[in-house]
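Figure 3 (text version): structure tokens given as input.
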């Protein structure tokens, strides 16, 4: 049950704290008074779509908080989502909406914990259902009618439909695989010839390491300059280790330096590090000399190997030009060609296998759809009888209704075309609902449908936005009684213009607009009191003359206010709804409506679950503190 709704800077609401009670809660007021703004705020708190217009003009932030009672199912859901309980064991859904240059951003929280859209949608289904204005226009949509029927069927039917969806998806995958193979078969031979040619060419190339070309280039350089390398290596050997021309080599000079340092070391130990460096350098020079000598000795000219290397380089470069640009790319292409050849050569599933798989999936789908149709037919019979029983008290004694289930091609939701057939008058044939029902009949049908769902739905709060539009008299009384019956099983919040409906309320709220000073809208409570006293002292008022009457439009703001009505105020409000003015006749009519509502409540007591008397609630309509 919705305990309270707190709104801050939303549309025309500056600040509002609206406590709600059990049973039937009614919002009344003139057209355009802002009743729908209250419902829009509630919708936004539970993840509904918002735009920049949701934020009050001149503000950058809007906040809505909806507080609900907890039940065991909600407590279990909070535990699954790892959301802690608050101290007062309530559930607080909040939505913060902010405006910036880049657009509108919003964040949803449950008990102070940030939640995503999926979590909020899941929670919304458990908490509240809103039947908004204009929803009767969608009653004729086959998809919506199917969803209603399946929802009425409960978990078993939904689970059966999900099974159909799984089989349908598998069937579609099998069909796509079969169609792809058929299309592929038409081009298979041509592609096979191309890939076989490429595979032969790449196989002859005997591709190995991606850096083979670089290694061959280095080998060619060495083979092409073997004579120069031999000569230069010998020169390096002489310079480092042994010089045949009589000049001292580097090793000789380092040996002389080592001898001198050894002699000097006898007189000064500080020369030891220098000696170590020279000794190390001598050892490295001797080792380098031996290595370069061995390198030069191993070098030899090999014209045959040089020719092999050059031929291989040419071959690899041709491969790179066709399949590269690099050798690594060519190797990767070779691997792809082999994979394509395996598929083209019949390593994959054959047409016969794919056709057999598709036919098996199709048979499973047909069988699953048949089981779903059978369950829908049983559900439809139950809904037919229940909906007629709900419609009869709504001044539709002779109504006929039938959920028509016609076969169609299998889809993810079954092989049924669902349509609601309706006949409000005896002797008239059943026809599609939207083709024959009037506006008032559509409203009553929607209310009866929601009443049917309320018997299988665990949602705690049901919201109706002018469900009684287009009706009057006896029909309005029937709708009022139906709303009251619903409010014995669920908390009901209803926006109405019908005095008959409003008279049945357990809690009656009047919504209206008020024009306030712009400065007053942002002042503190104490400052607003001082400003009001100053205005009274100066003898001016909002409706008076002088400066107050000549204020610019920028000096005032319009805000939405909600008042919880006591018994006297209810009489006045019902009189306004009935006659447009509070004269004696209208007041007398209001008294008769209240008396009639009391009689209806008393008469229905045995037929409904007894409820404890609703608590009186006080609405806080003060502005920002």
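Below: residues designed for each position.
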């Amino acid at each position: 049950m919705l305990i309270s709704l707190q709104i801050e800077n939303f549309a025309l609401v500056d600040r509002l704290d609206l406590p709600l009670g059990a049973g039937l809660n009614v919002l009344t007021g003139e057209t355009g008074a802002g009743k729908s703004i209250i419902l829009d705020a509630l919708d936004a708190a539970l993840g509904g779509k918002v735009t920049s217009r949701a934020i009050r003009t001149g503000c950058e932030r809007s906040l809505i908080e909806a507080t609900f009672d907890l039940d065991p199912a909600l407590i279990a859901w909070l535990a699954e989502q790892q959301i802690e309980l608050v101290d007062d064991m309530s559930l607080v859904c909040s939505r913060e909406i902010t405006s910036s240059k880049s657009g509108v951003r919003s964040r949803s929280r449950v008990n102070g914990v940030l939640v995503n859209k999926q979590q909020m949608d899941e929670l919304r289904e458990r908490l509240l259902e809103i039947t908004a204005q204009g929803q009767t226009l969608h009653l004729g949509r086959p998809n919506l009618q199917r969803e209603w029927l399946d929802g009425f069927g409960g978990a078993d039917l939904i689970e059966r439909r999900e099974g159909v969806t799984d089989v349908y998806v598998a069937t579609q995958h099998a069909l796509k695989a079969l169609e792809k193979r058929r299309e592929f078969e038409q081009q298979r031979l041509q592609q096979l010839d191309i890939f076989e040619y490429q595979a032969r060419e790449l196989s002859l190339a005997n591709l190995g390491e991606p850096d083979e070309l670089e290694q061959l280039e280095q080998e060619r350089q060495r083979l092409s300059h073997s004579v120069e390398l031999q000569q230069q290596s010998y020169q390096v050997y002489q310079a480092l280790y042994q010089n045949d021309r009589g000049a001292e080599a580097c090793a000789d000079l380092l040996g002389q330096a080592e001898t001198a340092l050894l002699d000097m070391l006898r007189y000064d130990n500080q020369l030891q590090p220098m000696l170590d460096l020279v000794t190390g350098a001598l050892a490295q020079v001797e080792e380098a000399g031996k290595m370069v000598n061995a390198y030069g000795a191993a070098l030899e000219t090999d014209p045959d190997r040089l020719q092999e290397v050059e031929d291989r380089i040419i071959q690899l470069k041709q491969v790179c030009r066709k399949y590269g640009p690099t050798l690594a790319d060519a190797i990767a292409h070779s691997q792809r060609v082999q994979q394509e050849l395996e598929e083209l050569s019949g390593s994959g599933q054959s047409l016969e296998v794919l056709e057999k798989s598709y036919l098996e999936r199709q048979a499973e789908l047909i069988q699953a759809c048949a089981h779903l149709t059978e369950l829908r037919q049983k559900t439809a019979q139950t809904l037919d009888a229940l909906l007629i029983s709900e419609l009869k008290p709504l001044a539709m004694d002779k109504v006929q209704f039938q959920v028509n289930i016609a076969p169609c091609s299998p889809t993810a939701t079954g092989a049924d075309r669902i349509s609601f057939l309706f006949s409000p008058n005896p002797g008239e044939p059943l026809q599609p609902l939207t083709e024959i029902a009037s506006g008032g009949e559509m409203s009553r049908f929607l209310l009866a449908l929601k009443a049917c769902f309320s018997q299988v739905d665990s949602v705690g709060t049901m919201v109706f936005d002018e469900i009684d539009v287009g009706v009057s008299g006896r029909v309005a009384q029937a709708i009022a009684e139906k709303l009251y019956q619903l409010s014995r099983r669920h908390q009901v919040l209803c926006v109405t213009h019908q005095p008959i409906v409003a008279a049945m309320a357990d809690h009656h709220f009047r919504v209206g607009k008020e024009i306030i000073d712009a400065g007053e809208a942002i002042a503190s409570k104490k400052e607003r009191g001082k400003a009001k006293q100053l205005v009274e002292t100066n003898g001016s008022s909002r409706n008076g003359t002088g400066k107050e009457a000549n204020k610019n439009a920028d000096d005032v703001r319009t805000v939405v206010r909600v008042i919880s009505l006591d018994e006297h105020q209810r009489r006045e409000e019902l009189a306004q709804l009935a006659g447009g003015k509070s004269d004696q006749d209208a007041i007398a009519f209001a008294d008769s409506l209240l008396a009639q509502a009391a009689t209806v409540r008393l008469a229905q007591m045995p037929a409904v679950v007894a409820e404890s008397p609703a608590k009186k609630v006080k609405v806080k309509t003060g502005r920002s503190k």
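Residues 481 and 600 are 7 Å apart (CA to CA).
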